[in-house]
User: What shape does this take?
Amino acid sequence: MIKKTSVLTLIFCLLLVILSPGLVQAQGGLAILDSSAQAEFPSKLNFSLSAKSDVNITDIRLRYMVDRASFAQVTSEVYIDFAPSNFVEASWTWDMRKTGGLPPGSSLDYWWTVEDANGDRIETAPVRVQFDDIRYPWHSLTEGKITIYWYHGEKSFAQELMATAQQALVRLAKDTGAQLEKPAKIYIYADARDLQGAMIYSREWTGGVAFTRYGIIAIGIAPENLHWGKRAIAHELTHLVIHQMTLNPYNELPTWLDEGLAMRTEGPLEPEYVVLLNKAIVENRLISVRSLSSPFSAYAGEATLGYAQSYSLVDFLIDNYGQGKMLELLTTFREGSSYDGALEKVYGFDMDGLDNLWRDYVAAPAQPSKEAGVHPALIGSLAMVATGLIVGLGSRYRI
Ligand SMILES: [Zn+2]
Assistant: This one.
């Protein structure tokens, strides 16, 4: 059910100003006169404070806590540099070009502590700052735990993307038993260029990003790119769900499992990936499962084969051993298990064992019940177009 559509921001200046917490007075003469935070998306957060006292103010600290999933509450503390005085106007800028940024729609809580020469001390109440991308007039659409934000295109465009997201959750739950545990925000930019403007370190091929600890996805979807956009939503949403449910301080998921599940939720493997996979099978150039457990190659062609193999590996595990085992594998990884240890516990074979079984699986003659194209039957006709397609894959790179 669609709950609401609303214009999120009607802000006339580029700076979001949040005034807080007003006058705060300690028992002596120490008082906070004003405090504010200004967001300059995507690169800066400016904090400022003014305070007075009967005697010199000697110590001002800013503390903040970013709202994201973590294993322990992490509070950052900033010592403000200022000349002691009975009236102080202090400021500090979080320059994210030096530290890395925050995604659109993220938030943090901040508060100040101020001390004077009498030893009087004030700690302000925490105030929340929303780090929104106010360069665009966002609309929103919420269904269940998912909210889609968009500014370009009709409501029907957002509804179509929402339907895709909801179907992806259903498909993922059917395959793995994994559910979206916390709310997810999906920001749809008008195209890849707008998306790149929202990121501090954007790479040219970035088309979509899942900020899994924040529960936030950002994707650039141009109207003529809707087919790709729907797959990207299913892909990134899968990363979000799987990372939420397996988050632990000890170990990451093996890349092939993370990417393979995301690829499978998109739908049937696209022909260009099928071509690459089948070509690698014939030429005996498959990448080992052990290698695919680490981040993929920086070379587009090799990385694309990595995605294709990951899809096939996950396909093999789910089709042969079922949803229950996949859920068990994910919950074992949540406990921080090693890659070999988790596979052995759930399936009875390690990464090398999986490698051998899977190679037999893909080398076997195509089964009539399988989707055409996933097996080697198409190698002869499709291999010829493989090279041309690889070039095109650069812009469709997955992350
Ligand atoms: Zn991915």
